[in-house]
Amino acid sequence: MLSAVARTMPLFGGQDDDGASDSVCAAYLRVSSRSQNYETQRASIERAAKARGQRVATWYQEKESGKRLDRPELERLRGDVRAGRVATLFVFRLDRLTRSGIRDTLALLQELRENGCAVVSIGDGFDLSGPFAEVVIAVIAWAAQMERLAIGERIAASRQRLAAEGRPWGRPLKHIGLVTLQAAEKRLAEGQSIRTVATALKIDRSTLSRALKVSRALAQKPVQKTGGKGPVKASPRSDGA
Question: Which of 1, 124, 154, 182 is 20 to 30 A from 89 (CA-CA)?
Fold first, then answer.
């Protein structure tokens, strides 16, 4: 599981010198992978809040999949809402809260609203507080779910195409020289952990682990002499991560 990063500032009431209110106003940011960042969401929310005369006092942000509701920062946000510490919540789009379907989206929004928290989605372009809010939310949640399913279908199609071409799924094969593997084996025999060895040799831990596994498996089989010391390929991970 990817780790959550939270940046929290004290909550204040009233207005500051420029007239902007930051009373119990918060924002939730989410991206799905470590390679992504929050800057686009954060900048857009800051502009929207300023236009409304508000200022975000607490930021909840994490790098987690939207398919699950049991996310650390989302749980912290829900706890703060239930405790009455958040009156307005900004999100870039509703799918930042959840992409697990209409039922979860409606239930989560109902929970937030029942505890006195108004949700402002700046990217969806719809009013979530009017008499047709539930209908609008259901349509948005349905569209997000369809997008997630489409992504899954594209991944499945890519897997089938690669399998038909006899190509592996996952990261490109990485080559680790025999000298490096021997150095790794020596360090491991001395009692060093795989993480310590990988760091010392400047190799990703999972890549080194797979290469050692392949090397040890080959060592147990009869090997024909080739006259060279070629590299060992680290097998791709089966999950494609």
Answer: 1
Distance CA 209, CA 225 (A): 25
Tokens representing 9 are 């500032």
Model pLDDT for residues 111-146, shown as the tens digit of each residue: 998 899 988 888 876 656 666 666 776 776 676 667
Can you say whether residue 128 is alpha, beta or left, with left for phi > 0 and alpha for psi between -120 and 50 degrees? alpha
Q: How many CB atoms lie within 10 A of CB 47?
A: 11
The 3-state DSSP class for residue 52 equals coil
Burial class (CB in 10 A: 0-12, 13-18, 19+), 190: exposed
CA end-to-end distance (rounded Å), the chain: 12
Express each pLDDT in 190-210 by its tens digit: 999 988 998 888 888 888 888
DSSP 8-state secondary structure symbol assigned to residue 237: P
What residues contact residue 187 under an 8 Å CB cut-off, 6+ apart? 196, 197, 200
What the block records as the tokens of 192 is 């060093």
How far apart CA 92 and CA 78 sit, in angstroms, is: 17
DSSP per residue over 73-115, as a string?
A: HHHHHHHHHHTT--SEEEES-GGGT--S-HHHHHHHHHHHHHT
Mapping DSSP to helix (H, G, I), strand (E, B) and coil, where does residue 65 land?
A: coil
Supply the pTM of this predicted model: 0.51
pLDDT digits (tens, 9 = 90+) for 148-184: 677 777 777 877 887 787 776 666 556 777 888 889 8
Burial of residue 169 (CB within 10 Å: 0-12, 13-18, 19+) is middle
